[in-house]
Hints:
Elements: H1 11-21, H2 30-43, E1 47-51, H3 54-64, E2 72-76, H4 82-89, E3 93-97, H5 108-114, E4 119-125, H6 134-144, E5 147-151, E6 159-160, E7 163-164, E8 173-177, E9 190-194, H7 197-207, H8 231-242, H9 244-262, E10 268-269, E11 277-278, E12 284-288, H10 294-303, H11 319-325, H12 333-341, E13 342-345, H13 353-370
Parallel strand pairs: 2-3, 2-4, 4-5, 5-8
Antiparallel strand pairs: 1-9, 6-7, 6-11, 8-9, 10-12, 12-13
Helix pairs in contact: 1-8, 2-8, 3-4, 3-7, 9-13, 10-13
Amino acid sequence: MIAMARPDIGELEIELVNRVLRSDFLSMGQMTVEFERDLAAYVGSPHAVAVSSGTAGLHTLVRALGIGPGDEVVTSSFSFVASSNVLLYEGARPVFADIEPEYLCLDPDAVEAAITPRTRAILTVDVFGHPCRLDRLGDIARAHGLHLIDDACEALGAELGGVRLGHPSLATAAVFAFFPNKQITTGEGGMVVTGDACLARLCRSLRNQGRGEGGEWLLHERLGYNYRMDELSAAVGVGQLRRIGELLGKRDRVAELYSRRLAGVGGVTVPPVAPGVRMSWFVYVVRLDPAIDRDAVRRHLADRGIPTRPYFHPIHLQPFFRERFGHREGELPVTERAGRTCLALPFHGRLTPEEVDTVTGVLEEAIAACG
């Protein structure tokens, strides 16, 4: 059976994990420090703070920025639910702006129209590894005195105008995630990066139960969380980051195979990449013609052992968000259309050309049968 996603773990990562196991530190040791230093250098940021997940990183950052009850944050509904949940954790309200139809990232004009006197930040989502228009969104944030938080959990290695996401010129701070389907993995884990030294120090305290810089075990300066990354996870991250050129190259190759194979297939639009963007492929998501029954296509593929996912179900239409905020269909037409037509195909760097041919061949059959 063709896997939906697979991590790519090599001998280097295994050796680094063994090195940790032979040491006296399984948490809060030098491997975490090394991973933070290496990732900061990779994205060009002065500060990086390792945490237990991308969600933990976003929550830590929202808390550190003082966003709380009564505040609003303009963000995307075309995302994994965690990017909005972290606002609710702190009592803030996500205000959803629509997305651009081509690249599925936040529409800057829609973002600006959604800003109110209660708005404290813009939280962007680099969907599927394609950067948002952070240049324009940065201008909007500065004009309104807002923080710009970049949820780059799906986009490590992506670039905008030759600048890697995570560079402090692009946002107040960014967050990356390392779940097993991501560009690099630590099993579970995330990283906050920022150019603001005070913000980084506060994030370090918050992830470590509110302890101060001195690290006194029973001295807590503020309310904090157990969001630390363990040394075993950090060791995998160090090894993965040393191989990131190889790992991203493999994903580029598979994406190119898919795009070439699907070019010209009726009823399918392959993912576009904007000028000046270096895509970092998280998943490979096609869009089906609205007249095609996507669920029938998925069943056809599943019957032949090929898994798919219908990325994304818009957050504002999730049951909890409907009940709490009264959201209804029709509020975000571009987001909702993308939610009905997007289909993620099996994707990881270890897919073979033969497997790609199998997936795309069965997809063509399904479209012919279900269109």
